[in-house]
Amino acid sequence: MILLRRLTSQSSRSLAVTLEYARCGGGRAERGGSPEDDCRSFARFALRSRTGGAVPAHLPAPKMRSAPPAPLRRWPGFALLYNSLEDKTMPRVLSRTLAATFLAVLVGSAVPAQAQQVLRVSAIPDESPTELLRKFSPLGRYLERELGMKVDWTPVNDYPAVVEALAAKKIDLAWFGGVTFVQARMRTGNAIPIVQREEDARFTSKIIVSTAAGINGLADLKGKNFAFGSPSSTSGHLMPRHYLKQNGIDAAKDFKRIAFSGAHDATAAWVESGRVEAGALNASVWDKLVEQNKVDLSKVKVLYTTPPYFDYNWTVRGDLDPAIVRRLTHAFLKLDRANPEHREILELQRASRFIATSAENYHSIEAVGREAGIIK
Question: What pLDDT score does 28 carry?
């Protein structure tokens, strides 16, 4: 009884009240009391648990029940607990030990889970690890202030690792391309895309070629060595391959050799170095490389730009606290280039602004991926 009365949390008090009720009328042989005394004790305890205040000693006894409440009877292990309390042949110490053991288990399961303190974030490695961290760091600091919680960056080695990390609940927020989002949605059943850059609603890819390769049109790509990014890349593989096929170039049949560089900036470096004669990468990375003078335009040129399609987004795991999802979405949507801090974040993200998105925007990516055998 002392143990029950010392429980102070709301969930623990509720459990204690119910267990006290289960004993109402029980154990009278030990105390020499009456059923009315037992239930009056229970009523005083229940009221004190609910209000935290004192209860008059003359409180009327509640109406006796023939059995404990149904919710308690449905709890696992209740029968053993209740019978042990009522079994007058069982040694008193054993009876109390069983009660204490089951009470500890039930109270432990009744304590609410601690609120999430850390937001774990990752991204598909479509650029070098140092570049991804450089791009994310200001955004991470901004999200920490907006959410009031720590934000941890989790680097990964390849595209599938981000999908698996979200599915295994090792991360809470992921930067996906169209293909990896579809894969994550299929893998989890409930991954939620919350925002995308305005540019991602009309994203494009570039086919670049070595200026020394004598390639002047798409037909000249036949018989050449060609580099895509990651096999799971939307803008570095699936969509440029799809549009090449629409223009009469079947990558599986027409290229001398296909190689996967793993990242967009790596593809540009391969073409520039002559490792391959041509390659595909996303337009955003190509533009950045040109702006930062990280590609020699005397050695590499753009041959073709694809039609637009939906691509990247920020996606949360489906069971993330809805309150966190709302605050996170709001934080992205309120980024404004008129604010100097926000402008730095948006420029690093290659974004004019962030806009809301939905899973429906990626149905066409899924259809193209299934046709190509990349999404199964």
Answer: 40
* pLDDT confidence tier of residue 115, bands split at 50, 70 and 90: confident
Percent of the chain with pLDDT over 70: 70
Query: What does the buried/exposed string (b/e) look like for 21-51 if buried means 16 or more CB atoms within 10 Å of the residue's CB?
Result: bbbbbebeeeeeeeeeebbbbbbbbbbebee
Spatial contact of 328 and 321, defined as CB atoms under 8 Å apart: no
Mean pLDDT across the stretch 167-184? 98
Task: Give the chain's count of helices (H) and strands (E).
Answer: 17, 11
304-327 residue pLDDT tens: 999 999 999 999 999 999 999 999
CA angle 108, 113, 115 (to 5 degrees): 155
| Location of structure tokens 């799971």 | 232
The answer to whether residues 235 and 180 touch, using CB atoms and an 8 Å cutoff, is no
> Quick check: 77 and 105 in contact, CB under 8 A?
yes
Name the nearest CA neighbour of 246 among 211, 205, 198: 205
Coil, strand, or helix at residue 367? helix
This prediction's pTM: 0.69
Of all residues in the chain, what percent are helix, strand and coil, respectively (each to 5)? 50, 15, 35
Token pair 């054993």 is found at: 94
Q: Mean of the pLDDT values across residues 13-20?
A: 42
* DSSP summary character for residue 236: I
- DSSP state, 318? T
Half-sphere exposure of 267 (CA within 13 A, CB side): 34
Q: Using CA atoms, how far apart are residues 138 and 133, in angstroms rounded to an integer?
A: 9
Half-sphere exposure of 99 (CA within 13 A, CB side): 24
